[in-house]
Write a structure and sequence with these properties.
Chain A is 31% helix and 22% strand. By secondary structure, chain A is α+β, with helices and mostly antiparallel strands. In chain A, a hairpin with a 6-residue loop joins strand 18 and strand 19.
C-alpha cells in the first residue's frame, strides 16, 4: 500500500468498533482508542496495545497473523492518548517528519497530534479498496457465518410452518406469534451456534415489511408478507446476510405477484455476476425485471416499488464497497449481497437476498451457504 | 450545554457504533456516518438523516424524545458526506461563522469540512460528563438489561451445578464442558430474552481465568476457578455487567482463599459508595482488603494479585466515566461496576462484580438486579 506512494508511513486510530482497524490488526480490542502504525522504511506494522490488553494483542495481532509483515506490539506509554503513541512509534522508527497516510475517518484528536508533531497528513482509501477482495481465509469466515445465518433462517421458517391461525392472527407455542418472538427465537439459535445476532435481525410483517429497518413488535397475521433479514457477526468479525420472505396461508394476491417479480429479479441479477462486469448493470437488470412485472423500478422510501439498491459488499463491515448500483467493475474474490425487493406500505414487502462470492470459474459466482426459496414456509430444512 | 459557553453550535458525526451520538440522538442508525447539530440561537437539535433511514430517524429522534428541545430530521443533501450536511444545517440556522463545539473524537474529515467552511472548532467533553449521571428512564433500561444478565448467570450456574466430573474434566449434556459451550448457552438465554450478547461474554477456567479478556476454548476442570463475566446490550443500547466465579468440587485451597479475599474486597468497596465520596477511595479500600488477605494489592497484567481498577461507569458504553481508581466525586444517579479480583496465571482467577446505582438514600447505593454469590454452583436460582 505504501509502496505505491511517496508517503513515509500510515497511521490509523480507533476502537473495537472500527472495522478498518480490525482488518489491519485482527485485534478485537477494547472499546477505547488504540493505534496502528505502518512504517515503510522497515516494513513494520505496530499495534500500540491498550492497557490490560497486551496478551490479547500479542495473540491476535502477531501469533495469528497470516502475512509476513514484521509485526510488533508496543507497550510504551500505555494510558497515553493513541495519537501520541502513534507519534512516538513513528519517531522510534526514525520518521520525524514527512507525509503520513490516514483514513479520512481517523479521529480528529489523533490527526491533530500527528500534525502538531510536524507530519503532513494525506487521506487514503487504500485499505477500503483492498478490503473488497477477500482472501481464502476471509471467504472461509464468511462461509461459516453464512451457514449459521441459514440455520437461523431455518428456525424462523420452521416456526412459521408450525404456527396456526386464529381470527387471522398467527399463534405459535400457545401464544400470539409476534415479530419480537420470531426475532428472539432466531437470535437464540445464532448465539447457540457461536455467532452474534449483532442487533441486525430485521423482521417485518405486512406493512412493517415495507419498512427496511423495522425492529419493533407486531403481531403476524395470516396472508401477509413476513420479511426476515438476518445479518449476524461471526467470531472473527465477518458478517453473514440473508433475507427470505414467507406468507402463511396466502391468497395468491399482491404478495404472490410481488414474490414472483422479486425472485425473477434476483435470478436476473445473479445471471449478470462475473468478474469484469460493471456492478451498476447488476442493479439495472434487477430493476428492469421488477419493472417488467408491473412494479415501479425506481421508488423513494415509503413509496410503492423497488426502493433501494440491489446489493453491497460484505466483510468485516456489514455494508462495504462495492455498492451494486454504482459503476465499478466486479472482481473475483468480492463477496456481495444480491437483494432486490418490492414494497407497498399499505400491503407489505418482499425481499430475497443471497450472499455470493464472485468467481473466475463459471457461472461467475457462488452462493455462500445456499438456502431454499419458498413463499410458503416448510417444516424441514 | 451550549448555554454555559460562548459557542455558536455543537456538531458531532459518527455511525451507529458511536455511543456519544446514540446518547444525543437515541437513533440506532446505520453503519455509515450521519450528523447531529445543535444550534443555540433557536435551541434546535437536528439529525441529518442518512439515506433510507428517514422513518426510523423520525421515530427514534423525535417521536420518542423525552425532553422539550425543538427537534428536526433534515433530509436535504441525503448521500452527501455528513460533515457537509452539518455545515449546511448550521448555515440554514443563520450561523455562517463562529465557534463550534465538537467531541474530540469527531472524524477528521468532518472537522475539516467545518473548518473549511469558516468555523473555529473547540473540543468539549460536556456530553461525556453529562452522560455520567443517569436519568430515571436510563436507570430503568440499565435495570432491565441487568435482570437479563442475571438470567444468563443463572443459566451458567445451573449448567455448572449439573455437570459431572470424569477424569478431572467436567462433562455436561453428554460432552466435555468447555468455555465455548458455556458461553453459547449463556448467549442463547440472553438472545432469547431480547438482549445482545454483544461479544462480551468472557469465560475463563483455571489459568485462562487470569486472562481478563479470554474468549478462547478450553475444557473446564474440576477444582479450578470458572470466571464468568457477562455484559450484554439491551434494546435501547444500555449495557449490563456482572461477574461471578464458581468452583466445582474445589479442595478449599488457593481458590477458596482468593474467593474470600475478593468477596471481602467487594463488600469493603460497596460500603464506601455514596454521593460525594472520592471514587479513588473505593478502589483503595478494595485493594487494601485484598492486601490484608495476603495477596499483592497492586500488580501488572500477567502477575499475581489485583491487576486492574475496581470499576467503571456503565451506560450506552460498557466502559465510561467515572473510573473508580481516579479522583472524582461520586454523584447520585451514577451507575458503576464494583469488581475486585485476584489472579494467579498458574492457578486461576477470581472476580466478583456488581452493577450499582449511587443513591442519595442510605446506604448510598443500590445493587441493580441482585444475584446471589456462592463459590459452589447451585441448581435453582
Amino acid at each position: 500500500m505504501l509502496a505505491d506512494t511517496d508517503a513515509d508511513g500510515f497511521v490509523h486510530v480507533g476502537d473495537r468498533f472500527d472495522d478498518e482497524l480490525r482488518y489491519l490488526t485482527r485485534f478485537s480490542g477494547p472499546d477505547r482508542p488504540y493505534a496502528f502504525v505502518y512504517t515503510g522504511s522497515e516494513a513494520t506494522a505496530t499495534l500500540c496495545a491498550p492497557r490490560l490488553f497486551h496478551e490479547q494483542a500479542q495473540t491476535e495481532f502477531i501469533d495469528r497473523a497470516s502475512d509476513t509483515t514484521h509485526r510488533q506490539v508496543r507497550t510504551e506509554q500505555v494510558g497515553e492518548p493513541a495519537g501520541i503513541r502513534a507519534v512516538s512509534t513513528l519517531q522510534a522508527a526514525g520518521i520525524s517528519d514527512g507525509t503520513i497516510l490516514v483514513p479520512q475517518q481517523i479521529p480528529h484528536d489523533a490527526a491533530l497530534y500527528l500534525e502538531q508533531a510536524g507530519y503532513e497528513l494525506r487521506s487514503t482509501d487504500a485499505v477500503t479498496v483492498q478490503r473488497q477482495q477477500k482472501t481464502p481465509a476471509e471467504i472461509g469466515c464468511l462461509r461459516c457465518v453464512q451457514q449459521v445465518t441459514a440455520a437461523g433462517m431455518a428456525q424462523a421458517e420452521k416456526i412459521l410452518a408450525e404456527s396456526t391461525e386464529k381470527n387471522g392472527v398467527l399463534r405459535w407455542s400457545g401464544a400470539a406469534l409476534t415479530t419480537e418472538v420470531l426475532r428472539r427465537q432466531i437470535n437464540a439459535i445464532l448465539a447457540q451456534d457461536g455467532v452474534q445476532p449483532a442487533g441486525n435481525t430485521v423482521i417485518g410483517a405486512g406493512s412493517s415489511a415495507a419498512d427496511l429497518h423495522f425492529t419493533g413488535v407486531e403481531e403476524i397475521n395470516a396472508g401477509e408478507t413476513v420479511l426476515i433479514d438476518i445479518s449476524p457477526r461471526g467470531p472473527h468479525g465477518y458478517y453473514g446476510d440473508m433475507t427470505r420472505t414467507f406468507v402463511v396461508e396466502g391468497d395468491g394476491g399482491w404478495e404472490r405477484r410481488a414474490y414472483v417479480a422479486v425472485e425473477a429479479a434476483l435470478d436476473a441479477a445473479l445471471r449478470q455476476l462475473a468478474p469484469g462486469v460493471d456492478a451498476a448493470t447488476v442493479h439495472e437488470e434487477a430493476a428492469a425485471e421488477i419493472g417488467a412485472y408491473g412494479f415501479p423500478m425506481v421508488a423513494e422510501e415509503g413509496e410503492i416499488g423497488f426502493t433501494h439498491g440491489t446489493g453491497h459488499g460484505v466483510g468485516l463491515s456489514l455494508h462495504e464497497p462495492p455498492i451494486l448500483s454504482r459503476e465499478t467493475p466486479l472482481e473475483s474474490g468480492m463477496v456481495v449481497t444480491v437483494e432486490p425487493g418490492v414494497y407497498d406500505p399499505d400491503r407489505g414487502g418482499v425481499r430475497l437476498e443471497e450472499l455470493v462470492l464472485i468467481t473466475a470459474a463459471e457461472p461467475g459466482y457462488e452462493i455462500l451457504a445456499p438456502y431454499p426459496r419458498s413463499i410458503t414456509p416448510t417444516h424441514s430444512r
